[in-house]
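Input record (Table S2, row 288):
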Amino acid sequence: MTMVKKNDRVRRRPVVVHIAHPAPPVPPAEGSAMPDRLIITIDGPAGTGKSTVARALAHRLGLDFLDTGAMYRAAAAIAIDGELNIDDHEQLVNEIERRDLHFDFDTDPPTLLCCGESIMHRLRQDDVTKLVSPIAAIDKLRQEMVKKQRQIGVQHPRLVTEGRDQGSVVFPDADVKFFLYASPRVRAERRAKDEMAKGQPVLLEELERAIRERDERDSTRTVAPLTCPADAERIDTSHMSFDQVVDALAAHVSRVLGARFTRRPRARGAAVGGASGGGGGAGGGGIA
Ligand code: DC
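Output record (2'-deoxycytidine-5'-monophosphate complex):
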């Protein structure tokens, strides 16, 4: 039986992905064709800056933001704090259900609540980070999380959602899908920078090895392995700044929506590239 103990907790704070605060939200242009439903998925391995990028993109496009890793992290925190047996999947899932995990979307970023109280302070603590990978590999738990995420997609149909399986499993019919990637070396360097900024000693080779191992585990697990969906836009962020990544994503969303809205109103015979035509910049396609 695998018990987790509260005193396994470690003090170190987690990786915070480099870079600046998101730009202020840009509302859709007056009279523009912002769709009622727009689901954008961002998947990829750890250390690619997905979460920060997803949040900034959501901000820029005026969409809601969903961090699904936070849900698995909260499950790990509940298991630790409740000293649950993580091999008893049924009990684990029931206990997590009992905690009524849900987001308060009135805050930015949305606050994840557990029994009505914020659990955000626990999510990036080391004991949680250590346990979350095996927790996220539990099929029964994933089924519940996927259900919750789809419900959120119904309640918040204008959403940027990030994780590992958002485009492949949870929202296979998403409007726009991204897969962010960066080489293990670059991701290790980013992490090392964050750790050093916190005064923590780091061994770059060690970090890189851990990242490779985690990638291997996440992409070979039997349940919802990390994969790049065939219809996702794959972006290698290794040599891009945060702003460049957000700009590239916004521009791609713009192109996709621009093409859609250009096609729709004048379906046949009309010239492509009218007023709503998909410009290359983040402002094209009516999403400003
Ligand atoms: O993105 P993150 O580091 O907060 O994710 C925490 C863990 O949850 C990580 O082990 C990957 C896993 N995860 C997952 O399996 N599926 C998701 N949709 C999101 C995260």
